[in-house]
Design goal:
With 320 residues, this protein is α+β, with helices and mostly antiparallel strands. The protein contains nine helices and 15 strands. It has a domain at 200-314: T-fold (Roll), CATH 3.10.520.10.
Length: 320
């Protein structure tokens, strides 16, 4: 595809670490005189990520989330961001029929994931954990009322925070007037406009050779949930961070990863996790039923792609 005159191959980029992962923001500019302006907006975008992490970190006892977790049953005046994510959590809990549930924090801690993942090898399985009744409606334990939050059980919004951050940064860049940019928070991504060559954004999928599967995305988000990196073993038992609230204590290793394309990164993130914990057979059926754009990668190789996902393939002939 030829280069459009609008694009002058100038990319302003900012990379850093946040949310326990690598962050990459890119703004494509048509006028190199706007480099300084882009750099300032990228710097502000990083500060926004700092703010989000300080609210939602479950490893920081001073985070807003952990303060509310420490006072169950108390009504707290909450930040706009925390209320927004709480509302999203309630909505996605219903949409996924309970497969997405922020009350899994106890299960994560009990299996050793009660510290930053870089230190998880030092962890031990907890002998005691509180059993959560996941059949009880989430709305009974997560109560939103006039800008306040009340937790009846502890919450962990990690499963949606990265996607939420991507969406917030994308909105910020658009409000600043940028049309062509990439927001990447550890694989939760949003693509706007075109790349520096004037093409749609091309992306491959982790674990699949790009010659076999390449996506072409514009104004779309993508997220991958998998156990390629976040799995561990304690006392001979294997664990990973993707907890199935309908089968706590059971950790499936049949799948390696699930990738979902959606309008927002939060939506893609939630459905990628949901499909993963459901297992291959149920995930395939649900993806077709709800017309989800997804690719399911088996742990021992082999990939299945949904009908909707095929719409985003850069070269469909290679994937027939």
């Amino acid at each position: 595809m030829g280069m459009d005159n609008e694009f002058l191959a100038a990319v302003v980029r900012r990379q850093f670490k946040k949310f326990g992962t690598e962050i990459d923001f890119q703004i494509v500019i048509a006028d190199k005189r706007k480099i300084v302006e882009a750099e300032k907006d990228l710097e502000q975008a990083e500060r926004k990520c700092d703010e989000i992490e300080k609210i939602f970190s479950r490893f920081d006892t001073e985070s807003e989330l952990m303060k509310i977790n420490s006072q169950l049953g108390v009504s707290w005046p909450a930040s706009t961001q925390l209320v927004e994510i709480a509302k999203l959590a309630l909505s996605y809990n219903q949409e996924t029929e309970g497969y997405f549930d922020p009350r899994i924090i106890g299960e994560l801690e009990a299996t050793g994931y009660n510290c930053d993942f870089e230190r998880i090898k030092e962890a031990k399985i907890s002998a005691a954990k509180k059993v959560i009744n996941f059949e009880r409606a989430l709305s009974e334990d997560l109560i939103i009322k006039e800008g306040t939050l009340t937790f009846k059980e502890r919450m962990d919004f990690t499963g949606i925070v990265k996607g939420y951050a991507v969406d917030q940064i994308a909105k910020f860049f658009k409000a600043c007037g940028w049309k062509n940019f990439l927001v990447d928070c550890g694989g939760d991504m949003f693509f706007s406009g075109k790349d520096q060559k004037g093409n749609p954004w091309y992306i491959d999928i982790e674990g699949i050779a790009y010659q076999n599967l390449m996506l072409e995305l514009q104004e779309k988000a993508i997220a991958t949930s998998g156990i390629g990196k976040r799995k561990w073993e304690i006392a001979g038992k294997r664990f990973h961070h993707l907890v199935n609230p309908k089968a706590c204590g059971q950790y499936c290793f049949d799948l390696k990863a699930v990738t979902v394309v959606a309008d927002s990164a939060a939506e893609a993130d939630v459905w990628a996790k949901t499909l993963f914990v459901m297992g291959a057979s149920a995930a395939k059926s649900l993806a077709q039923e709800k017309e989800l754009a997804c690719a399911i990668l088996a742990y021992r190789g082999g990939v299945w792609v949904s009908t909707e996902f095929k719409k985003y393939l850069h070269n469909p002939k290679n994937n027939e």
